[in-house]
Design goal:
Belongs to the 2-5A synthase family. This is 2'-5' oligoadenylate synthase. Keywords: Antiviral defense, Cytoplasm, Immunity, Innate immunity, RNA-binding. The structure is a single chain. By secondary structure, the chain is an alpha/beta fold. The chain folds into 2 domains: 4-149, Beta Polymerase, domain 2 (2-Layer Sandwich), CATH 3.30.460.10; 189-328, 2'-5'-oligoadenylate synthetase 1, domain 2 (Poly(a)-polymerase, middle domain), CATH 1.10.1410. The chain is built from 11 helices and 9 strands. It has helices at 7-15, 19-39, 57-61, 83-106, 162-175, 186-194, 198-218, 225-239, 247-259, 277-287, 309-322, and strands spanning 50-56, 70-77, 111-114, 127-132, 140-148, 264-268, 293-296, 299-303, 357-361. The strands form 2 sheets. Strands 1-2-5-4-3 form a 5-stranded mixed beta sheet. A 4-stranded mixed beta sheet has the order 8-7-6-9, sandwiched between helices. It is globular and about 70 Å long. The two termini are 37 Å apart.
Length: 362
């Protein structure tokens, strides 16, 4: 019901985390990161070295919503020497982390509450738990994910060595696990969104807020939220690319892109590109897949749009209904309009679709 001209205020007062909230997340992350780096594997039967702990998810990217107290921590282990090893051994590391957290609880260092069934699989992907600590006013939810440190000491804004992606592509194809190892590229995913202007992050928050409302209304299946975040970045890059813009126009542009899900084919060339023959051929194959396609800018094996049109169809129906709401109308009742996000046809020969929404951004 919020009119278009008040969207910025709505985001500021309803969606932006306040200072106390941000401090709470920061303190909670510090507690668990210190535990993982300094205490967790001290008594392990084999020496385990944590090379780094990276904060991912919304709090890492700087796009968290008010009131959602959660954090993803990716723990990079020297003992995982390949993508295959990450797949095979992460379960044992997750169980060891759980044992050590329980030991801390017995010593009353902090309290943890584990998600029921989070370790029911033989090779769980993550350990989910809630942390309670005297310093924290409320519980904070964590997902801890062990990962192979394929990037090593990556420096901001640099492209990783192409060999990193060649190895990734070959192992993913051999294992038939495309997109499985995106956690290894958390630093790149985080960098990709964190560097955006403040107002773009606000637009991402607004889109996420809308998506959460859709999720509550529709239930599953829906596209993954990360796909909507990337779609928002794409809409801004192509439609505005300015630090100041109309929030209502940006929001409407994203919803219109959702309506065009059956044509979406979006990728970036910030961390990988077509110059290497093996990577280039693989990318051409990825981009020829059925729509929608939104490649993870950090991981070319990950189509975050999912490749299945049905979840997008459900979301598009909701987007169509929303386009008539007051947040897309000016004070006189006229439509705010949307950005002109052009269709690039220069690379269309790569795709079987007659009129793909086909774009590349560096």
């Amino acid at each position: 019901e919020t009119p278009a001209k008040y969207l910025d205020k709505f985001i500021e007062y309803r969606l932006l985390p306040d200072t106390n909230f941000r401090r709470q997340i920061k303190d909670a992350v510090h507690i668990i990161s210190t535990f993982l780096k300094e205490k967790c594997f001290q008594g392990a039967p084999h020496p385990v070295r944590v090379t780094k702990v990276i904060k991912g998810g919304s709090s890492g990217k700087g796009t968290s919503l008010r009131g959602r107290s959660d954090a993803d921590l990716v723990v990079f282990l020297s003992n995982l020497g390949s993508f295959q090893e990450q797949l095979d051994k992460r379960g044992e590391f997750i169980r060891e982390i759980k044992r050590q957290l329980e030991a801390c609880q017995r010593k009353e260092i902090f309290e943890v509450r584990f998600e029921v069934g989070s370790l029911q699989w033989e090779k769980p992907r993550a350990l989910s738990f809630w942390l309670k600590h005297p310093y924290l006013p409320e519980e904070v939810e964590f997902d801890v994910l062990p990962a192979f440190d394929v990037l090593g000491q990556w420096t901001n804004n640099g492209q990783p060595n192409p060999e990193v992606y060649i190895t990734l592509i070959r192992e993913c194809q051999m294992l038939e696990r495309e997109g499985e190892f995106s956690t290894c590229f958390t630093e790149l995913q985080r960098d990709f969104l964190r560097q955006r202007p403040t107002k773009v992050k606000s637009l991402i928050r607004l889109v996420k807020h809308w998506f959460q409302k859709c999720k509550k209304q529709l239930g599953k299946p829906l596209p993954q939220q990360y796909a909507l975040e990337l779609l928002t970045v794409y809409a801004w890059e192509e439609g505005s690319n300015e630090t100041e813009f109309s929030m209502a126009q940006g929001f409407q542009t994203v919803l219109k892109l959702v309506l065009n899900y059956h044509q979406l084919c979006i990728y970036w060339t910030k961390y990988y590109d077509f110059k290497n023959r093996i990577i280039g051929q693989y990318l051409q194959g990825q981009l020829a897949k059925p729509r929608p396609v939104i490649l993870d800018p950090a991981d070319p094996t990950g189509n975050v749009a999912g490749g299945d049109s049905y979840p997008w169809q459900r979301l598009a129906e909701e987007a169509r209904a929303w386009l008539s709401y007051p947040c897309f109308k000016k004070g006189d009742g006229s439509p705010v309009g949307s950005w002109d996000v052009p269709v690039r046809r220069s690379a269309s020969s790569l795709s079987p679709s007659p009129h793909p929404l086909y774009t590349a951004w560096g």
